[in-house]
UniProtKB/TrEMBL annotation:
Recorded superkingdom: Bacteria
Signal peptide (from-to): 1-22
Gene3D superfamilies xref list: Carboxypeptidase-like, regulatory domain, TonB-dependent receptor, beta-barrel domain, TonB-dependent receptor, plug domain
Organism: Pedobacter alluvionis
Domain Outer membrane protein beta-barrel intervals: 385-787
Name this protein carries in UniProt: Outer membrane receptor protein involved in Fe transport
């Protein structure tokens, strides 16, 4: 209760301070009336007011049940409006003139004209470029891309500007790890491994667009030091009953494929929607590790391993939106997946006094099984409070995830002549896990006067993870508990937050100041050893955004934010997972959160050419490190707090229409990363390197409805923590053809055309020598077919449905 009182007090204080800057709302002085095609009042029509001098947007409003719209405008000048509603042609008004302050002007009555254009015509009209730059984010439009066909969401992310996904599925943006992944604006609340699993199971056919938000406002959770990636899924807004079926096949060394069904039924009061997708995924992976264990004498390890992963995925989503009236909407959403798979691996490690001379070997075979089930529920409500866009929304979320990982290992230690050094050791693990998530949030925004807007909200979440490692070893043909490795780890986390943003609009300048307050309570309990790590702390996260319009075609922006990254659940889990006896991974329950200061300066030319320059400093940065285990002559991977990480970056995005039939988008990201730790496992670490990423996408319109794409990427060598990564590059190509009066589309694609994508890395840690080569199955030919059926005509609508996806909540693994 004390926590809730503190949050309520903080939010109330922020409201009082904010409202102190505001003035009483003046009465509207500009008005007009919109009628539909039957000359009846048209309610909930979107009306946008523009300055006639430069066509800049002044305000947005909705018509009321009488068809009336109003604006508060005090600045002298000439103005016009555009009115739009689904199913009608856009209406442009005459120009009116304000010759004195707060002069009352009536636009009069205007009538909408119904549009009877069918779906195929609309599809042509709304085709978007692959990359769009908006004021606060970069948007990659996935749905129309041929290169994206048959890809998973994880593979699509790899093509996003400034985003990198390595062969271990680690996601970074602008060269930095710690990205927060959201689905339809909803936080996933999952570990990094589970996020990768979720994205690996999602198909590109389900994705509408991907939003890259490098410096979020106080409205968003403060986690994610390199920003937020929001994946927006498709949702049909057409009236009546309609849907689509889709399927894709891919083949490299293995066959993969998926099939899905989407259904939507919409009336004036109700929208029902759902989809189901089944996928089968197979992938080969090759890993080779050469390393030296320092000692007297040095020991040389040469390891080569191959694995084959098979995954079977069932994903579903169902929901409804009920439109209580034109201003109030309530929605229910259910997401779930039921997935299982296997991974068979064989590793052979040669051991000797040099890389050319081996005297023994360790042969390790393993079979891993996994089963992941997750269902999440979201109840949401949204109310539009006035025609100025004020609204309040609420979300209640619950999710439960159940997983079970099983592993069987066979370790065979032999002399170089093939004779056994010792009997084969058989071990097995069973790791059931449960993640339970509850959360609620309320968001409120209001126009305090004609130039001041307020956003505020509260949020609380409760997450509990329970991981039970049941390790056994085979002794005399009987399985016995391995007390050295068996363990149970329970982690509880509660985060309570309140935020407010105040936005002030001047003539050519927009300023937004925000503050988010978060209180965190966490407890990690290693039950077997009775080791408890408990933390309780408060944090304050200010944000500042300034937008300056120099002219119609030139805009400047500046932003600052302070952010936090709490350790992921898998990073805190102290269990040990073996690749073989000399190579393993373990968690670190003593990790502290990391804090980031982010600064960004941006310049936009002609609304499409964008240059941004950024600086960030992270204290207690959480980094993946590879360190030596001298006692066991082993190499292990874990996460550790490194003292400081400093980053400079510059990002340039240039779309060019070379000819009528050839369009290209080019993105260059240059960054400098440095890491410094005075004592990391007994040694000092200091690294720094300038690197860059270049991505280019070429789109060719061969004929109406027939396009081709080529997508290329190059990432230069990069140092990150204790890892020194070599250059990575690939080229993808694809074709897309619309069919059956644009109700269907056929897409062909080949990923990694020249089979060049691979991971090569070495040690940046002092005194540690190793090199790693990793090659996944990346050269894959794909074919995809989609057919849309049902009612395709977009009818005139009396209201524009705007709301049941804009809330944040959660999803699971």
């Amino acid at each position: 209760m004390k926590t809730l009182y503190k949050i309520a007090f903080t939010l109330t204080l922020l409201f009082i301070v904010t409202i102190g800057f505001a003035q009483t709302n003046p009465k509207p002085n500009i008005s007009g009336v919109i009628l539909d095609e039957t000359k009846k009042p048209a309610d909930y029509v979107t009306v946008v007011l523009f300055k006639a001098s430069d066509s800049s947007v002044v305000k947005t409003a909705f018509t009321d049940p009488s068809g009336i719209f109003t604006f508060n405008v005090s600045v002298k000048g000439s103005y016009y409006y555009k009115a739009s509603n689904m199913g009608y042609k856009t209406l442009k008004s005459k120009t009116i003139f304000l010759t004195e302050d707060n002069q009352k002007v009536d636009f009069g009555t205007a009538q909408l004209v119904a549009s009877t254009q069918n779906l195929k015509e609309v599809n042509v009209a709304v085709t978007k470029p692959l990359i769009e730059r908006k004021m606060d984010k970069i948007v990659m439009n996935v749905s129309n891309s041929a290169v994206m066909t048959g890809s998973t969401a994880l593979e699509v992310l790899q093509k996003a500007p400034g985003v990198s996904v390595d062969q271990n599925d680690k996601i970074s943006m602008m060269g930095k790890q710690g990205v927060l992944i959201q689905l339809d604006g909803k936080q996933t609340y999952m570990s990094s491994a589970d996020v990768a699993n979720l994205l690996r199971n999602m198909q590109s056919s389900d994705i509408e667009s991907i939003e890259l938000i490098t410096n979020p406002s106080s409205k968003y959770d403060a986690s994610g030091n390199s920003g937020i990636i929001n994946i927006k899924t498709k949702k049909n807004k057409n009236g009546g009953t309609n849907g689509s079926i889709n399927g894709s096949l891919g083949y490299g060394k293995n066959l993969r494929g998926n099939a899905g069904l989407n259904l939507n039924h919409r009336t004036q009061k109700l929208n029902l929607f759902g989809n189901y997708n089944y996928g089968k995924f197979e992938r080969d992976n090759l890993i080779a590790i050469d390393r030296i264990s320092n000692g007297t004498p040095d020991i040389y390890f040469m390891q080569v391993g191959e694995s084959k992963r098979k995954q079977y995925n069932n994903n579903l989503k169902a929901g409804l939106d009920y439109f209580i009236d034109k201003k109030n909407t309530i929605g229910l959403l259910v997401n779930g997946y039921f997935n299982h798979g296997t991974e068979a691996s064989a590793n052979n490690t040669l051991i000797g006094t040099s890389f050319q001379k081996a005297d023994s070997s360790l042969i390790t075979k393993s079979l891993q099984t996994n089963k992941y089930n997750n269902v999440s529920y979201n109840l949401n409500y949204k109310s539009v409070l006035d025609t100025a866009g004020s609204e309040i929304s609420a979300d209640v979320d619950y999710s439960k995830y159940k997983g079970n990982d099983g592993s069987d290992y066979e370790n065979d230690y032999r002399f170089q002549n093939g004779n056994s050094i010792r009997p084969i050791i058989y071990t097995r693990n069973n790791t059931p896990s449960i993640i339970d998530i509850k959360a609620f949030k309320i968001d409120y925004n209001v126009s305090l006067n004609k130039t001041v807007k307020l956003e505020a909200g509260v949020k609380s979440s409760w997450v509990k993870t329970d991981n039970d490692l049941q390790a056994e070893v085979l002794v005399s043909n009987a399985w016995q508990n391995d007390v050295k490795r068996s363990n149970q780890f329970v982690y509880d986390e509660n985060v309570n937050a309140a935020y407010t943003n105040i936005n002030k609009q001047f003539k050519n300048t927009s300023v937004q100041i925000g503050l988010r307050v978060e209180q965190t309570n966490s407890k990690g309990n290693l039950i077997t050893t009775n080791t408890v790590v408990e933390r309780n702390y408060w944090d304050f996260f200010p944000t500042l955004f300034v937008q300056q319009t120099l002219s119609k075609n030139n805009q400047l922006g500046f932003s600052y934010s302070r952010r936090i990254d709490r350790p992921s659940y898998d990073a805190l889990n102290p269990f040990i997972y073996y690749l073989d006896e000399f190579t393993y991974n373990k968690g670190n329950p003593f990790l502290n959160p990391q804090y980031t200061h982010n600064f960004e300066l941006s310049y936009t030319l002609l609304q499409k050419y964008m240059l941004s320059i950024g600086y960030s400093k992270i204290n207690d940065v959480i980094a993946e490190v590879i360190l030596p285990d001298a006692a066991n002559k082993s190499l292990y991977q874990t996460n550790a707090n490194i003292a400081t990480n400093i980053s400079y970056n510059a990002n340039l995005n240039v779309p060019v229409q070379l000819t009528k039939w050839w369009q290209t988008n080019n993105n260059l990201n240059v960054f400098y990363l440095s890491f410094e730790a005075p004592d990391l496992a007994g040694s000092a670490l200091k690294t720094g390197k300038t690197s860059f990423q270049f991505k280019s996408q070429q789109t060719f319109t061969i004929m109406d409805g027939f396009t081709a794409e080529i997508n290329g990427s190059y990432e230069s060598p990069l140092d990150y923590g204790t890892l020194s990564l070599k250059a990575r590059y690939y080229i993808d190509a694809g074709l897309s053809k619309s069919m059956f009066n644009k109700k269907a589309s056929l897409k062909l694609a080949l990923s990694d055309v020249f089979n060049m994508s691979e991971n090569n890395l070495s040690s940046a840690y002092p005194g540690l020598t190793y090199s790693v080569h990793q090659k996944n199955e990346t050269q894959i030919g794909k074919i995809s077919f989609t057919y849309r059926f049902g009612k395709n005509e977009i009818k005139p609508a009396r209201r524009r449905s705007t709301g049941t996806e804009a809330e944040q909540g959660r999803m699971k693994n």
